[in-house]
Amino acid sequence: MSLQSTPSANRLHIGIFGKRNSGKSSLINAITNQSTALVSEVAGTTTDPVYKAMEIRGLGPCMLIDTAGFDDVGRLGELRMQKTREALEKTDIAVLVCASEPLELERRWVELFRERDLPILAVINKADLLGDAGRLALHIRQQLGLEPLLASAKERTGIQELIAALVKNRPEGFGEQTLTGDLARDGDVVLLVMPQDIQAPQGRLILPQVQTIRELLDKRCTVVGTTADRLDRALAALAAPPRLIITDSQVFPQVCAQKPPESLLTSFSVLMAGLKGDLQVFAQGAQAIDTLTGSSRVLIAEACTHAPQEEDIGRVKIPRLLRQRAGEGLSVQVVCGPDFPEDLSGYDLIIHCGACMFNRRYVLSRIHRAQAQGVPITNYGIAIAKLTGILDQIAL
Fold first, then answer.
1. Phi, psi of 88 (to 5 degrees)
2. Does an H or E element contain 267, and which?
3. I need a surface site. Which of 153, 270, 380, 388 has the fewest CB within 10 A?
4. β-pairing, 377-379 with 349-352?
5. What angle do the packed helices 159-168 and 24-32 form, to 10 degrees?
6. Separation CA 119–CA 326 (nearest Å)
7. Mean pLDDT score of the chain, rounded to an integer?
8. What is the mean pLDDT of residues 353-371?
9. Helix axes 104-115, 133-144, angle to 10 degrees
10. Which has the closest alpha carbon to 247: 60, 38, 107, 395?
């Protein structure tokens, strides 16, 4: 897959962290060999995180994240820090840029990195300007337990060593997850059921459908596509039942009722849940649907922000199914994009979308936050299968 066609959510996310004016932005520019980030002598130039997609030899498609300094101050500083913490939740490799002492703030952030089991690279940028870089390096070893790299973005020294260290610290197994896993194999016939209703984008397929088709073609599968109202014709046109049927979760019951006994059944949302999150956690979380009552509170989380459509799956269809099951008094709150509450304790269940716009690290961070607070979490597709009584017939 080319650099241009690799979705942002599938890239290795490299977060650049450090104090204001430590040289984070200039380091980004040196790595990309472009003026990607705004550089200034004024501390606090970077406000919202800057995301730069690129390809690094040995790493493949990456997303470099330039963050605001974690020593920012004031009301606006706190808002910028919130964005930096959000970037941390998406980070696969953390680069800590050090330029001055004391190292107390750096020590706190190293603890946050280690809590998330992140590979950490310490870099002393502006090494050409520091009078005693060796002393700073010694204290980084003693206080942070890290072996720092010396670099100068201005002189372009140490950049290749940093890139080599990034390659060496690439998380094991990153990018090896696939959408269809063992559900589809070389030579299989796979039937895709893709309703083209009001929620389908005009003239194009949605990202999970495109990614699924590409992966199946790479696996040398025979891919057949149809809409829900033509499913019977599509099945009749095949010489034998398909190995796998992948459908939009909204028509799960309809497709399940028509599928041949020999065919496996799943949905695009369930496939995304396995790629981005933890299917077993989501399946276990769906069991909490049985305990919901008219006084329960459910949080629905969408990765993307979009204008609500008629019969919207997250705002209309799932809440309707929940209330039919638990009672009309059940409360549903919908959040979009990065707006995911820190305090989840007031909810009885979280239902997350397929998260095609988020990277795996970000989704897992949300799962871990829910687990830490004892709140069950599941996925759109798995929740719909549970609510319609067919979860035991879905291939997970």
1. -60, -40
2. strand 264-267
3. 388
4. parallel
5. 80
6. 44
7. 90
8. 95
9. 50
10. 395
Helix (H, G, I), strand (E, B) or coil at 232: helix
Place of tokens 């498609």: 61
Cα distances (angstroms) measured from residue 91 to each of 256, 283, 298: 38, 26, 28
Under 8 Å between Cβ of 72 and 105: no
User: Do the Cβ atoms of 136 and 130 come closer than 8 Å?
Assistant: yes
165-184 burial by CB neighbour count: b if 16+ within 10 A, else e? bbeebbeeeeeeeebbbebb
**Cis? peptide before 102, omega within 30° of 0:** yes
CA Rg, the chain, in Å?
24
Classify each residue of 39-50 as buried b or exposed e, where b means 16 or more C-beta atoms within 10 Å of its C-beta: beeeebbbeebb
At 1 the pLDDT is: 39
Structure tokens at 260: 């041949």
Return the C-alpha torsion angle 33, 10, 166, 154, nearest 10. 20
Sheet with strand 331-336: strands edge to edge = 331-336, 297-302, 349-352, 377-379
Q: For residue 24, what are the contacts with CB-CB under 8 A and spacing of at least 6?
A: 16, 17, 18, 37, 46, 66, 67, 69, 97, 125
Bridge partners, residue 16, by sequence: 66, 95
- pTM for the model stands at 0.88
Residue 131, phi then psi, degrees to nearest 5? -75, -30
Residue 142 CB-density burial (10 A; 0-12 exposed, 13-18 middle, 19+ buried): exposed
Could you report the per-residue pLDDT of 184-195, keeping only the tens digit for each? 999 999 999 998
Q: What is the pLDDT of residues 36-47, one digit of tens each?
A: 544 444 444 445
Q: What 8-state DSSP symbol labels residue 316? A: I
Distances (CA, A) of 342 to 89, 347, 368: 12, 12, 12
By CB neighbour count within 10 A (0-12 exposed, 13-18 middle, 19+ buried), where does 336 fall? middle
**Tokens 């200034």 — which residue?**
40
* Residues 294-330: b if buried by 16+ CB within 10 A, e if exposed: eebebbbbbbeeeeeeeebbbbebbbebbbeebeeeb
Residue with tokens 């997250």: 314
